[in-house]
Amino acid sequence: MKKFDYFAVLTVCLLSACATATDSHSVGLKASPAMVVTANPHASKAGADILRAGGSAVDAAIAIEAVLSLVEPQSSGLAGGGFMTHFDAETRALTIYDGRETAPASATADMFMLPEGKPMGFIAAKTSGLSTGVPGMVSLLHLAHQDHGRIKWGEHFSQARLLATEGFAVLPRLHGLIQRFSRFIPKTPDEGPVAAYHYFHDEFGEPVAVGHVLKNPDYAAALERIAADPSNFYRGPIAEQIVTQVAQAPRAGDLTKSDLAAYRAQRRAAVCMPYRKLQLCGPPPPSSWLAVAAIMGLLEHAPAFSGQGKDDPANWGIFAEAQRLAYADRDRYVADSSMVEVPVQGMLDPDYLKSRAAQISSQSAIDKVSAGDPWAYQPGQRKVAGFDAATDIAGTTHFVVVDHAGDVVSMTASVESIFGSTRMAGGMFLNNQLTDFSFKSTDPQGLPIANRVAPGKRPRSSMSPTIVLDENGDFMMATGSPGGNSIIAYTAKTLVGVLEWGLNPQQSVELPNMVARHDRVRIEKDLAPAEHIRALREFGFEVKESAGENSGLSVVLRHADGRLEGGVDPRREGVIEVVQP
User: Fold this and answer.
1) Domain assignment of residue 312, given as a range
2) Residues labelled as active-site residues
3) Are 430 and 557 found together in one domain?
4) Do 542 and 445 belong together in one domain?
5) In three state form, how does the secondary structure of 122-189 look?
6) For the segment 9-34, what is each residue's pLDDT rounded down to a tens digit?
7) Which of 66, 311, 396, 417 has the fewest CB atoms within 10 Å of its CB?
8) Do residues 216 and 301 share a domain?
9) For 227-272, how does the pLDDT look when each residue is reduced to its tens digit (9 = 90+)?
10) Pair (150, 248) in one structural domain
């Protein structure tokens, strides 16, 4: 077997004007009219090549996601879904493209409940046909292309087809995840479909090594069909394969060809919130972007950060409290707003945020955080919702593209958990997004949970692709992350780092990840100073020192003089590509 030279790959990237996490700041500071930031070097190159060929940010996004579906299958894919936040530089219009999966028509509120009345275990639910929602990614990309594409549909897939046919070298992160999660991939038919096991293991049952050239001819064939006509994903052989895989035992699902044929991605208005002189914008529910906005809105009314920024542990305490309050509201109220009323206006109302922020002290932690009453700040009848503690596991990616015209894509895509449901169709991993629903339909008090399962419903998502506009309505910053429900905290961290603590994008990405949800604060022990952790405990928090956080932040900042500066997460294998005019 040929030895894999990871450093040679990085050298090629540098020669083609891309940068790794360690040197992205210096590259980003150069005059660069277009930029691509993704978590994988193959994907960044594919997007940059499309821009060099005259494509738009959306064109680049299509190429990027097609490649990520192959080389980063643990995170996202064409058999998954996502949200795209798009900025049109000419019109200054923001548009959300919602490609969130939907539950099949056969879905029931108790589909993840066992006969004895207890919820199914998460792993059992994940590695099943029950967990797969109707994939939305191809429909999302096609809808965005109809609005903003500059090159002919189908030309976007050439790089992904080439990699699938000729093979790509397995990078360390994919190898490590195969090793770590191999025990959850069915090895025998009684455990479930075994295609993923054979794809990822050699003839001796060992995970494919770093540098192993992995080929996927089934994916190449699927891409050829999708390139010819995007509707081919939702009908014909690909759709038949998806339905067949979902119907396999054990824990077979009931997704049908009719469910696939009926799917349509949605074009939605962005939700924007004033923040100082800026506008923070992102997707409406079922995205949880409202929580990102709420964190920042709470910080406007909380005790002010000191001038020491990231170096003052008290500032981290204030940030943690804003997270706890925002998560409490998100967990209770956010769901698919096409089927459940969500108090969007109330949750972002300045007076409501001010009333919530009054609980935050710079001296000690809130004893017990609970959801507020945003309905009191919104016209209409108050709705009572039960508390939802649905599991949300990290199997997601985020990328940012700024094209030569100044159009911007901030996009988060997912198959939900690592390797999705572990079932494959057309060389693609099927999502397990339906496990983002609450397994229970009511809480212990008997109140209906907003994020309960229903036919055709989109499960609540933590994906929060964000765009920041300056006081003139022009693009200033794009950010977002994978990471399950921690996405909210990771994304907010970069906004705080850049907008409040005066850091550049790379510095903000490299800050310790801290997630404060419920009554616990989780923080990266190897990146957070020991005195900060000690101070958080003295503040009154229950602190868990985390060995690592599964973020994969991608950030682009536009300076007042037009320069683009990128930030890429060293926790993954991200690369920044700078595309000269």
Assistant:
1) 289-333+344-382+520-546
2) 396
3) yes
4) no
5) HHHHHCCCCCCCECCHHHHHHHHHHHHCCCCCCHHHHHHHHHHHHCEECCHHHHHHHHHHHHHCCCCC
6) 332 332 233 343 433 333 433 335 89
7) 311
8) no
9) 999 999 999 999 999 999 999 999 999 999 999 999 999 999 999 9
10) yes
